[in-house]
Amino acid sequence: MTKSRSVIICGGGIVGLCTAYSLARAGCAVTVIERNAAGADSCVHGSAGYISPSHVVPLSAPGMIWQGMKWMLSSRSPFYIKPRLDADLWRWCWLFARSCSVAHMRRAAPLLARMSLGSRQLFVEMGAAMNGAFDLQTEGLINLCKTAECLDHEAAGLAKIAREVGVEAQVLNAPQTAALEPGIRMEVAGCIYFPIDAHLTPRVFIPALLEQLSRLGVEFLWNTSIKGWRTDGGRITAVSTTAGDLRADDYVLATGSWAADTVRGLELRLPMQPGKGYSLTIEQPRFQLKKSIILADRRAAVTPMGSKLRFGGTMELGGHDGRVRPERIQQIIDSAQWYFPDFRADDFAGIEPWFGYRPVSPDGLPYVGRFRKHPNLIAACGHAMLGLTLAPITGQLVGEIVTGETPSIDLALLAPDRFA
Ligand SMILES: Cc1cc2nc3c(=O)[nH]c(=O)nc-3n(C[C@H](O)[C@H](O)[C@H](O)COP(=O)(O)OP(=O)(O)OC[C@H]3O[C@@H](n4cnc5c(N)ncnc54)[C@H](O)[C@@H]3O)c2cc1C
User: Fold this and answer.
1) Are residues 264 and 277 in the same domain?
2) Nearest-atom index, ligand 1, CA of 292
3) How far is the CA of 253 from the centre of ligand 1 (A)?
4) Ligand 1 center from residue 84 Cα (angstroms)
């Protein structure tokens, strides 16, 4: 087949790979540039694996400023900003604060619901196209509330908003919640159950997707770093890499939390902070779950992955700083025991904490679309806590942009220039 357009995808994380999948299927000649080696971890590898239409409230939700300030006072809270003199960070914080409004949430929630429901469907289709090569689990997600106060809050907030935008949410009491997960003892007030949510095991999904991409003719340049850009007027004429200058018709920016650094020479404004999160995977848990769970009062995640069980959480805005903070890890372990009293500290003994950097935009929405200043550069980054959930729909949208189709979702709120 003659390839209609050539596209270089910068970054081989989940968003870059799902974008490669869409573009290759649309008949484009696709090259992915990734600085790490084939098979190396990206942010999704240690993630909670949720595909979560239930996450309709953006990170910059109303009330998050006060909640965030309270959390900042505790070293064990799920959220932390490392205070430092960094103009990008403070500008990001100001934009974040500005987005924590009811009006923004009302605009963002229907968009997030539409994107994530579309993505979930695309995961089902990918599963069929890849002959079930990965484990898409469609058991739903339990938003578990330890306290009655939390349950009331989630029922009046998240569940109500989710229903308004077409995502089913069931408010369940303690016995009803226990019936959803009979294999484990829980001490909770109840839950919000989202039957439409799903999950998968990233370490199974990514190798299967890479194999599929090779079959579709996608070319990979591993161990290749992007260093800058060649431009002529507004057009990008090449991306400069450690393997030399590489040319294509279009370029996709999918370098995750490093996206703002990647485009530094292009004088674009793309506010982005790395939001570090941790996970701990128990290889042989004494108890196993069927569904993925959010520990709502503590903002931690629990996901069954095959025979393993993964706990994850925390959001640290501290730059790309590879130090592991033991108090944050302890917070995840304490949370597990608070909800599931039969878990013991030694269930987590000897587990090496994993961490990754979420690419966090200030308004809780990703950047998807062409840059005004360089129209053959397309943003596909800034998905924060929803990078896996939204990767397939992002890929589809980028495919539509490249091939000149009308995007199936209005891109206005996702414009990469919205903070310029
Ligand atoms: C603890 C935790 C739990 C999470 N759980 C979930 C979940 O359950 N569901 C969900 O939807 N999301 C979840 N997320 C978020 C999700 O993992 C991220 O949003 C997503 O992985 C981001 O993907 P990405 O492709 O945009 O970025 P990345 O995975 O960071 O990929 C970007 C790639 O670009 C490469 N790169 C960067 N700069 C250069 C350069 N100069 N040259 C070449 N290559 C470069 C990097 O090496 C990297 O591989 C979680 C995140 C964490 C940390």
Assistant:
1) no
2) 8
3) 13
4) 24
